[in-house]
Amino acid sequence: MIELIGYAASALVAVSLLTSNVLRLRVLNLAGAVVFVAYAALAQAWPVLAVNLFVACIDLWHIVALKSKSDVFKLMPVGSADPLLANFLAYHARGIWQFFPEFDLAALRAPRCVFILRNLLPVGLFIYTEEGGDLRVHLDYVAEDYRDLKSARFLFNRERNPEIFAGFTHFTAASGSPKHAQYLRRMGFVEDGEKKGFFRKKI
Question: 73-202, superfamily in CATH?
Answer without folding.
Answer: Gcn5-related N-acetyltransferase (GNAT) (3.40.630.30)
